[in-house]
Structures are given as structure tokens and as C-alpha cells.
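This is your field. Have a critical look at the following sequence-structure pair:

***
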Amino acid sequence: MPPTDRLLAFAAMSFLLIVVPGPSVLFVIGRALAQGRRAALTTVAGNTVGAYVLVLAVAFGVGSVVERSVLVFTTLKLAGAAYLVHLGVKAWRGRGSLRAAFAEDVSAAAAGQGGLRTFWEGFAVGATNPKTIVFFAAVLPQFVDRGQGGVAAQMLLLGLVFNVIALVSDAVWGLVAATARGWFARSPRRLSLVGGAGGLTMIGLGVTVAVTGRKD
């Protein structure tokens, strides 16, 4: 098990990433706006399972390579940090068009049929979310205590922490959106503020990833 301080630090960084509206959150909100609470929560479940598949891939594949090579770790970390900053800048510059993104997600959600299809579409979004891929590959290995052994098990535990936070956060987004469907869609300014705040948070997270890391 990772030390408590690392576990808490990872949970805090995970929370910062998760609360930023990205592909998964927008998809959940789209489902909530178009089909209500049940579809939103089914989508959240699919997202969570999809994201944990990424954890498994890192724990038993990419993670072992990263753990053995400082060069690979540093290269991947810097690439991930740069991509997070890129996503943040893109979100900031495109904050005014977030309403159009919501409209596209609503249309896509309206075309869905049945709970199983909703689940698998949520799974696909969770498993291909670029923010999550970069975070697990570049950030998660930093919080593993290699001296304690059981690297894969530590990654699985950290990934579980991430997914629990994501499950709660995405469910809240979905429930709030389902409760106040018209409130978000009526105000471009509200959507712009959401996108701008998310972009700045992403940039900050990218900088943090770039300047922190293991000491060996």
C-alpha cells in the first residue's frame, strides 16, 4: 500500500483533474439533459469501468516500463504535462463554444437506445478519455513507493481511489444537470465560466506534473 501522504496527495490531484469538465463529464451532462437521471447514472457507471480498464493497462503494462526507466518516466511525464497544458489552453480559448458542445452531446444522447447501449457508450468515452490516459500513464507512477514492492497492486489501489472520486463527481454532475436541465443550456455566460475555469485548472495541473516527480 502506498504511504498515506502519497495516497492523500494523489487523491487531491485526482480531484483537481476530475472536477474539470472534460469528455466524460460533457457526455454525462448530455445524457442527463436529454434523458434524465437514470441515463446519466448509467453513463457514469460505464465511464468508471472504462477508466479502470486504463488503470489495469498501466498497472500491468505501461506502468512496469515506466517504473524501470527514469528516461521513459521523464519523457512520458513531460509529454503528459505538455498535453495537459495544451488541453487547458484549448479549453480556455474555446470556452465560448461550450454551449455548442453541450448541444452536440444532447443530440448524441437522444439517439441512444436502452440502458445497455448507454452503459457501453459511457464505457467507450471513459476508456478513450485523453485526460485520463495521460494522467494514469504520466502521473500515477509518481505516487508508487517502489521500496515497498507490489507496484502493480499499489497502482490498482491508486486507480481505485481515482475511480471512486470520479464516480461521485460525475454522478453529482449528472444529477445536477438532470435537475436543472434548462439552467445550463439557457446561459452561454454560465457555460463560458465553466469552460474557462476548467481550462485554467488543467493548465495548473500540467505545470504541477512537469515540476514534480520521483527523485531517483
Observations:
- DSSP finds ten helices and no strands in the chain.
- Residues 37-68 form the longest helix (32 residues).
